[in-house]
Specification:
Blueprint (H helix, E strand, L loop, with lengths): L26 E5 L9 E6 L7 E5 L7 E4 L3 E5 L9 E6 L7 E5 L11 E3 L3 E5 L7 E8 L7 E10 L5 E2 L3 E5 L2 E2 L2 E2 L2 E6 L7 E5 L7 E5 L3 E6 L2 E8 L7 E10 L3 E4 L3 E5 L11 E6 L7 E5 L7 E5 L1
Antiparallel strand pairs: 1-2, 1-26, 2-3, 4-5, 5-6, 6-7, 8-9, 9-10, 10-11, 12-13, 13-16, 14-15, 16-17, 18-19, 19-20, 20-21, 22-23, 23-24, 24-25
């Protein structure tokens, strides 16, 4: 679990205090992605500060996929690296270094953008592409190495959705269902195995977004637009406007320390892979702010911990 603390002054930004969340922490680690080829790069920032990312180590393979956390361990699953992958690997956030093998997903698939989520105990991976659209949700117990097990199914088979969660619910907004983008937000109760149910809708149909949660708000951004919007995770309903990004972002991912959330990487009109990191303070509606830069690439997996 991540613990609250105060970080004082860093670079040109204003430092903030992180709060305790079981599914994340202050170190955000982006894993893999694509830039002219499948990447095994992992880099990281301290979310409570601002500045450029630093090298964390290497993934077990060049890949795309989804990520989730129990606050101390980050788990990254699936992706595509010359073929659909069932590989799950993990890192310990407190110690920079290369990822290690965790186990395998139930189905090899490309999650395309960051569709992993956790309540701090279970880590879930939802949807994706196996050569066809997938409705599979599977899970691991993050504290214990081993293969994933079946959790349930999405309402509809989809790829290129994003995921976010708090200690109770996991949400799967947007994505592409059999080639048509959707505004649907689905949810599961993470403690109870079962199929996803309807939560509400985004303001527009889209895919390839980034998402995170502070435990109350679930915030979704991008999808080849500059929209940021949010839902109150405890209450079913449609998304509401939060603010705007500085550019039309797609294929990027992010995480939260419970106070501030960051998104990084992805693409933009005319730019195949951007190096931008932007952030918001989740409790305060408004536009995103420049954070720094990471190694430019798309389709990154992201998770945070301490």
């Amino acid at each position: 679990m991540a613990f609250g603390y105060q970080v004082l002054g860093f670079g040109s930004g204003v430092a903030v205090a992180a709060v305790s969340i079981a599914w994340g922490g202050d170190r955000s680690v982006w894993n893999g992605g694509y830039v002219g080829g499948y990447s095994n790069i992992m880099d990281y920032v301290a979310i409570s500060t601002t500045g450029d990312a630093s090298d964390f180590g290497d993934s077990t393979l060049g890949r795309t996929g989804g990520g989730c956390s129990n606050g101390s361990r980050g788990v990254y699953g699936g992706g595509f690296s010359g073929g659909y992958s069932n590989v799950i690997d993990y890192i310990t956030f407190a110690t920079t270094g290369d990822a290690s093998d965790f186990g395998d997903l139930t189905v090899a698939r490309d999650l395309a953008t960051n569709c992993g989520m956790s309540d701090g105990t279970k880590g879930l991976f939802a949807g994706g592409h196996t050569g066809a659209y997938s409705d599979v949700i599977d899970y691991v117990n993050i504290a214990s190495l081993g293969d994933a097990s079946d959790f349930g199914n999405l309402i509809a088979a989809k790829e290129s959705a994003c995921c976010l969660a708090n200690a109770t619910r996991g949400l799967i907004p947007g994505g592409s269902e059999s080639g048509s983008q959707t505004a649907r937000i689905e949810y599961v109760t993470i403690a109870s195995l079962g199929n996803a149910a309807d939560f509400g809708d985004l303001s527009s149909v889209r895919q390839n977004m980034g998402a995170f949660s502070d435990g109350t708000k679930g915030v979704v951004s991008g999808g080849d637009v500059n929209i940021i919007e949010y839902v109150n995770i405890a209450s079913l309903g449609d998304a509401t406007d939060f603010g705007n990004l500085s550019f039309n972002a797609g294929l990027w991912s992010g995480s939260s320390n419970g106070t501030r959330g960051v998104w990084g990487g992805g693409n933009a009109p005319g730019i195949a892979a951007v190096d931008t990191i932007e952030y918001i303070t989740v409790a305060s509606l408004g536009d995103s702010i420049d954070f720094g830069d990471l190694t430019g690439r798309t389709k990154l997996a992201c998770a945070s911990g301490d």
